[in-house]
Fold histidine kinase.
Amino acid sequence: MSSLSKGRSPLTIEHVDAYIQAFSSQCVIVVDGEGLIADCSAALLQEAGYTLQELKGMSLQQLGIESSFSILQDQYLEAVSRSSLNPIIRLRNCQGDVMNRRYAIVSLQTPDGRPYFSMHMDRVCTEEELSLLQKFAGTFMKDINLGVILIDVQFRIVDISDMACRVLGLHREKVVNKPVTEVFNAVPSHHQLIQPAILNGVVVRNHAVSWTNNEDRYELLLDSNVLKDEAGRTVGAYVIFKDVTNLRSLEQQVQRSDRLAMIGQIAAGTAHEIRNPLTSIKGFMQVLKNTFIEKGMVKEQEYTDIMLTEINRINELVSEFLLLSKPKNVSYHKVDIKLVMREILPIISNEALLHGVSVQYDAIPGLPKVIADSELLKQVFLNLCKNGIEAMADGGILTITEKVDYEELMVHIEIHDTGPGIPNFVIDKIFDPFFTTKENGTGLGLSVCQRIIHDIGGTIRVASKGYGTTFSVSIPFP
Ligand SMILES: Nc1ncnc2c1ncn2[C@@H]1O[C@H](COP(=O)(O)OP(=O)(O)OP(=O)(O)O)[C@@H](O)[C@H]1O
Ligand SMILES: [Mg+2]
C-alpha cells in the first residue's frame, strides 16, 4: 500500500463519493491504496459503457489499461518533474474501442487516513482527427471571411488569413515569421491592431477599431486571446477580427435618418407657428418704418431696417426647417442638370469672386435628364458649392464635373475644392443636422442636401484626404 504514496502530500477529502460527484462531467477514476477502482465519474462510466458495479474493486486492466497504477503514477510524476505534457493513457470501452486520454493524478486521503488517488483524464485527438483539424485550419485561413492572425511567444506572426492580408494591406509571404513590431512599424503604437499585452493574457472581446488602408477605411470588431499548452504555459496568441464597415455605416445611416425624422417632426410642428407671428411682426414693422420715414426719424428707421433683415433671416431658417420635414409643393419632372447649373453659376461665381476663388465647370454633352425638382436641385448644388468656396478662405479652385455611368444608370456630379479638407474625426458628422464648424453656420446645409437627394433615390458621398474635398452627388436617370 505505502509503495503507492508518492508525490505531493495528499489532499484531504471527506468522502470519495462527494469527490467524484464534484467531477461528474469529467472522466475521473478514483483508485484505492491497492490501485483498485474505488469509484468512477458518471462521464467515465458513460464513455466506457460499464456500470460502477462492474468496475468497483477491479484493477485498471478491466478498462483495457495495460500498465499498473503504480507505473502510471511514476510516468505522471516524471512528466511533472520535467514540466512536460501529461502522459497519455489508452483505455478500452466495453465495445473494444480504444480511447486516448492525457491524465493527471491527485493523491487523496480520507480523514481516517486511508489513501486514494484520482486519475483525471482529458481527451486527446487521434491522428485522423489531428489531420482533419490541420486541413480545417488551412482552409479556414484561406476561405473564411475573418481576419485571423496567429502570434508566437516572440511576438512574431506565425500565420495570417487571406482576409486579414487584404484588409491590412499585407502580403502573407512577406509577413510570416516577421516580428509584429516590424510589420506594423509605420503605425503608432496605440493604434496597433496587435498589442504586446495580449501575450500577457489580456483578453479582448468585441473591441471596435477603425483601420485605414490607403484610401479604404474599415471598421473592425476584434477578439484576441492567448494560447496555452496543457501545462498552462503561454505558447502564443491569436487575433480574430470581423469587417463590420457596412454594418456600421448602415447603423449610422439609420441613426441619421432617425434624427432627421425627429427634427422633421419638430420642424413641421413649429415652423408654421413661428412663421405666422413673424408675418404680422414684419407687417407692423414696415408700417412703423414708413411712419419713421414720414417723420424724418432716420435713426429709428435704421433700427427697423436691421429688425426687418433679422426677421428675413429667421424666415429663411424656418424655410430650411420646413424642407427638412417635408418639402412642400415639390414637383418632379425631367430635369436637365446643365440648365440648373446655368441658372446658379452666376450666383456661385459672384460668391467665388468675393472669396478669390475661381470656378471651373466641365459640362459634358448629352448628360441624361434626371427626375427631380429643379428648384431643390439648385439648392443642393448651391449649398455644396457654397461650402466649397467657404472652405477656401484664401482662394483656390472650385471644379464642377459631370460623369455618366450607363451601366448603373447614374449621373454623377462632383464638386471639388482645393480647401484644407475635412479631418477624419469630423467627416462622420458633417451630414448631421446642426453640425457646423462655422461661426455663422446653421449646420443644416448638408442635411437638407442629403434629404433632397435621398428623396429622388440618389446619394451624396464625400471624399477628403487631408487636402481638398470632393462631394459626389449621384442621381439615377430613367
Ligand atoms: N467643402 C468642405 N470643406 C471642408 N469642410 C466642409 C466642406 N463642406 C462641409 N464642410 C464641413 O461640414 C460642416 C457642415 O456643413 P453644412 O453645409 O451642413 O453646414 P454649414 O456650412 O456649417 O452651415 P450652413 O450650410 O447652414 O451655412 C461645415 O461646418 C464644415 O465643417
Ligand atoms: Mg453649408
